[in-house]
Structure formats: C-alpha cells, structure tokens
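<instruction>
Derive structure tokens from the sequence
<data>
Labelled lines for chain and fold:
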Amino acid sequence: AMLRLRLLTWDVKDTLLRLRQPVGDSYAAEAQAHGVRVQPEALSRSFRQAYGAQSQHFPNYGRGQGLSSRQWWVDVVKQTFRLSGVRDDGILTLMAENLYRDFCSARNWEVLPGAGETLSRCRQRGFRMGVVSNFDKRLENILSHCDLRHHFDFVLTSEDAGFAKPDGRIFEQALRLGGVPPEQAAHIGDDYSRDYRAARAVGMHGFLLRAAGQSKEPEVPPEHVLPTLSHLLALIEK
C-alpha cells in the first residue's frame, strides 16, 4: 500500500551535502596562506580529537552552557591547530575566524548526486519538506549558497531546537512545524541511530541512505534502505 505521507524531513550532512575535501585539506590550505605548513592528515586527526572533546564537554555547540556556536567552532579550530603544533595566538585567531566563515559558504560544500532533482520531484508531488540536522545556525546560509534552501518549508537545527538527534524532541518539534502526526511523516538520513532509529522511535517512517557495502544493521528492512537518493520516490510510492 502507498504510504500516506505528507511531510518529509531531511538530514543534511552526507545526505544532501558533503564536504568537497577532507577537513584537514581545508585547514592546511588556510594555514599555508599564513605561511604555516601543517600536513592535512595530521590536521584531520587533530580535528577529530578536538571536535570529539569539545562535543563531550559542550554538547550541541554549548547551547545549554552559554557558549555561542561561533565561539564553540572557533575553539575547535584553534585546538585543532594547537594539537598539530601551531602556537601563535594571533594566527590561530585569524585562521579560526576565516575557517568559520569559509564553512558557511558553498566553497567547502557540494550537493550530493541526485539531491536537487529528488527534492524538486518531492516538492512537485506536494510533500511538505523540512530539514532536521545536528548543525549550527549557519545551515540556512549554507543551504541557500548551495541552492537547496527553497525546497524546504523549515530548517530545524539542533542549535535552534536545543536538542540534537537522536533525541526525539527535535523530531517532535519538526512534526509541529510540519503540522502532521508522526505516521504521516518520514525522515531521510544516512546515520542509523541518529536518523533512522531515532525517527522511528517517535513514530515516523524512516529511510536510510546507505551506499553499497556499508555495514548492514539487521533491523533495517530492505524497503527502508536507499542505495541513492533517486530511489526514494519509488519506495514511497510503492
């Protein structure tokens, strides 16, 4: 039977948009512009360490602890460079400001294959559309720069919501914004626990974007798995 869906909510990173290059490459290029040579691989490792520690100490961009998401990111960038041996505070601040700004532009992001077309076709079919993303408030701008913002009725970030996926409360806010009960909504994302399982836990439908050869969680029936975004409408309209 055809699903009676009225609202589709979307994850962004690695579902609709992806980074054009590894974080370490972007950071290394910024450093080089200031005459500082650091290996991209080292920066990628340092970034994972700095980001992980910051996320643990200040979850969801420090929203509950009085940090702005901008300060949160500036600290992550500085710590990434410090872990890679860069010590000059003036340069650290400058690089952090520049990278915070650059990651808000289309420079560092690209639209995944099939994303624009799939979103257009979903709009044409009359679905309400929203974004539900563990992201900071730069997301509206990023989506605009990448020419995707116009597809959506609302953009709900974890910073705005005050809750990050897999917390069900961010999905409940999305359902209120979309004005539909959970059984008339589906969430599309690439992360099993944050996207698929979390949406289903509040009673929504879920579709998991998963490239061939990625690990198979047994709980995901094949009709909920998208090898590419272009498969979505066929599954919805079965």
